[in-house]
Design goal:
Order of helices and strands: EEEEHEHHEHEEEEEEEEEEEEH
Strand order of the largest sheet: 1-5-4-6-7-9
Shape: globular
InterPro entries: DUF3089
Number of domains: 1
Signal peptide: 1-18
Keywords: Signal
Radius of gyration: 19 Å
Largest sheet: 6 strands, mixed
Protein name: Lysophospholipase
Structural class: alpha/beta
Pfam families: DUF3089
Low-confidence stretches: 1-18
Length: 383
């Protein structure tokens, strides 16, 4: 049975190093590094499908000598049989990096460490009530070791954006709280893009809660800030059983889950710029890929759908979520739907919303933010 990419909210607790970390001086300890032939240097061609089904081919260009870096931590995808993954990239780890990290090469040098993450097998046991044998402390310690190695050998004073999804966002949230806030390196954090995890803030505030000094981003030229969001279709309720959008029962009173819309940081509804994945199995758990446009066969890894999706951070069903709307027009030949729901046995698991495509629905908005915030950081630091 295939399982969804479940979030690891427990990663938010202060971790304890449980095992010796891998050697990140070895190139094979990295999923992506600058100059390597790896998933982040793969095919980044895009078919842009207009409402009239006219398809325009685009290639996402790698920035020439980028002056900023991106440090990416991937979500729960490992298909290794044990509770924690090994340090050999399996196809799922490679393909999710292609989907979620490759577009950012337009803005930055990409660093993505392999880490011994909690696997889908461990989450299967958890879902079936068999406990969760995954060592979350080890997963965190690996990423911390990779971060330390990057700072020591590669950063050289450069600004860096942190990018994560699901388990990766949970790890980065802990890294910011434990290793970045209150330390000199905080000045180098351009922004953190934490998709698919709950970041707690005091109700009505932009700072406090999980982060003591890192505010939510509210403008494209703001730096040293964080984005966090969880995505749900606006046609589907946020079920009471959902772990997304609501503080856990253990949270202090007065806390809320942060929501920042990458396309409208100041609030309100905005048109999104998605880059959907044009194959089954990268981030969509095997759900069918839509026919993007009638009479058109599309073979590129990415598909852009200009004007199809809108998004707004909303408080609904007692949860704060990025509510995704589809501007469907049955009269035109373009798709009226998107994939990305978590499905088991052919049934949508509504509690997870659009967790699998939290990043894809706003991917080009995120890349533009990385470019804008990176340029601001460079001006601020006279780089």
């Amino acid at each position: 049975m295939k399982l969804p990419l479940l979030p690891l909210l427990a990663l938010l607790a202060a971790p304890v190093v449980a095992a010796e970390a891998p050697d990140y001086r070895k190139p094979e300890s990295w999923l992506c590094r600058p100059g390597a032939a790896d998933p982040c240097s793969g095919d980044a061609s895009v078919s842009r499908v207009a409402a009239d089904a006219v398809v325009t081919l685009d290639i996402l260009p790698a920035a020439k000598k980028p002056k900023i870096d991106c440090f990416y931590v991937y979500p729960t995808v490992s298909t290794d049989p044990g509770p924690n993954s090994d340090m050999v990239a399996d196809p799922a780890e490679k393909t999710v990096a292609l989907a979620q990290a490759t577009p950012f090469r337009q803005a930055c040098r990409l660093f993505a460490p392999l880490y011994r993450q909690v696997t889908l097998a461990a989450l299967r046991d958890r879902l079936m009530g068999k406990g969760d044998g995954g060592d979350r402390a080890m997963a965190y310690a690996d990423v911390k070791a990779a971060w330390d190695d990057y700072l020591k050998h590669d950063n050289k004073g450069r600004g860096v954006a942190l990018i994560g999804h699901s388990q990766g966002s949970g790890v980065l949230k802990a890294l910011i709280a434990n290793e970045i806030e209150g330390k000199p390196v905080a000045r180098q954090m351009i922004a953190a893009y934490l998709a698919g995890t709950n970041v707690l803030v005091p109700q009505g505030a932009d700072v406090g809660g999980d982060f003591k000094a890192t505010p939510l981003c509210r403008a494209a030229d703001q730096t040293g800030c964080a984005l966090a969001w969880v995505s749900f279709r606006d046609t589907m309720a946020v079920p009471p059983a959902s772990l997304f959008g609501r503080p856990p029962a253990s949270a202090p009173a007065g806390m809320a889950v942060a929501c920042t819309n990458p396309a409208a940081l100041a609030g309100g509804r905005a048109t999104l710029r998605p880059l959907m994945v044009n194959r089954t199995g990268i981030v969509d758990n095997g759900t069918p890929v839509p026919k993007w446009a009638k009479g058109r066969n599309i073979y590129t890894p990415f598909v852009a759908l200009p004007g199809l999706l809108t998004g707004e951070c909303m408080a609904r069903d007692n949860a704060n979520v990025l509510s995704i709307g589809i501007n469907a027009d049955p009269a035109d030949p373009r798709t009226d739907t998107i994939n990305g729901d978590v499905m088991i046995g052919g049934q949508i698991i509504a509690a997870w919303g659009l967790h699998l495509i939290d990043m894809q629905v706003v991917m080009e908005d995120l890349v533009a933010l990385a470019q804008n915030q990176g340029a601001t950081w460079l001006r601020q630091n006279r780089k």
